Amino acid sequence: MVASRSGDLTADGAAASANVAVIIVNYRTPELTEACLAALSGERALVPNLRAIVVDGGSGDGSAEELAATVAGEAYRDWVEFLPLPINGGFGWANNQALLRLAHESSPPDYVHLLNPDAKVTRGAVARLVEELKVYPRCAAAGSQLLASDGTPTGAGFRFPTAGRELVSAARVAALGRLLGIRPTIVADSSEVDWVTGASVMLRVAALRETGLFDDGFFLYFEEVELMHRLRAAGWLVRHVPESRVYHAEGSSTGIASAGQMPAYWYQSRRRYFLLTGGRRSALAADLAWMLGRPMGILKAALRRQNSPSRVRAGDLIRRRSAAAPASAPTWGDAPGKPPAWMEARD
């Protein structure tokens, strides 16, 4: 990618030759999805072989009809496909349905970029992720730097959850982590990380062929963390790319404020992650560490006259101990359409 005499970015090299499919999963946010597509359209000048699949996750509110009409319009019909799904199967399952359809094409893409509907790429964001994957052949996932509405960078590259980090998070005392030698969850000093946010991440198809797709036992949250844990365990790298900048209205696509009380499926997903990656001892240690740190977090909030931390409640951790279904990640090439494992477990 080079700059023209006018200073604009132009297609060149790795990004110009890459075959990239962008997947955007909508659930009752058609206006956000349309704005996301509009921003994405500018990347086609830099990544000529870019295309997109807009997935509607069983919205049932007219979103599918509105988006079908948008995609059929002149601006999108040549490079955007619309995929309506009959149920709201969750983030991972919805992305899997698009991925499994791509797997059955005669010429599947080299890379798949997962992009939240409440995200807007800046100029060159997609092309920069392509370049990162080209430069690092063992990189399976490259994630963008997310920006708040005012342009402030937000957390985008992370270390895996551990019992120690649960303790520090519940206590809300960063000094406790430094005292105990526990490195913080957010990585600010390195481009190689454990995992990156699924709001804007480009995945290497060759890596997905090896490790499988999202585990559809998760409804929402932690599914990208578990996938990248699998990728890292198989010897692949995950990298955070600060130069790929994406505005992200966090919580807009899920309807959940980041600082508010989390729904039941958040607790189920959290426990499922620890069970799948470390077993029951890992899940128990994480729960106990969080409950040990919580009184410190409450005391800190009281001293500062803040609201008590409400992201996780001890009672919810105890009640959500049933998310122990076996791993359920489809492999590249499986047939799409199978209901998600979390739904079967519920039934």
Topology:
Blueprint: E1 2-3, E2 9-10, H1 13-17, E3 20-26, H2 30-41, E4 50-57, H3 63-71, E5 80-85, H4 91-103, E6 111-115, E7 119-121, H5 125-135, E8 139-147, E9 157-158, H6 163-171, H7 174-180, E10 192-193, E11 195-196, E12 200-204, H8 205-211, H9 223-233, E13 237-248, H10 264-303, H11 314-319, H12 341-346
Parallel strand pairs: 3-4, 3-6, 4-5, 8-13
Antiparallel strand pairs: 1-2, 6-12, 7-13, 8-12, 9-11, 10-13
Helix pairs in contact: 6-10, 9-10
Describe the structure.
With 347 residues, the protein is α/β, with parallel strands linked by helices. The protein is built from twelve helices and 13 strands. It has helices at residues 13-17, 30-41, 63-71, 91-103, 125-135, 163-171, 174-180, 205-211, 223-233, 264-303, 314-319, 341-346, and strands at residues 2-3, 9-10, 20-26, 50-57, 80-85, 111-115, 119-121, 139-147, 157-158, 192-193, 195-196, 200-204, 237-248. Strands 3, 4, 5, 6, 7, 8, 10, 12 and 13 form a nine-stranded mixed sheet that branches. Strands 1-2 form a two-stranded antiparallel ribbon. The longest helix has 40 residues, at 264-303. It is globular. The N and C termini lie far apart (50 Å). Residues 1-7 have low confidence and may be disordered.
Brief overview:
The chain has 347 residues and is an alpha/beta fold.
Q: What structural class do you assign from the helix and strand content?
A: alpha/beta
Radius of gyration: 20 Å
Mean pLDDT: 90
Proportion of residues in extended strands: 15-25%
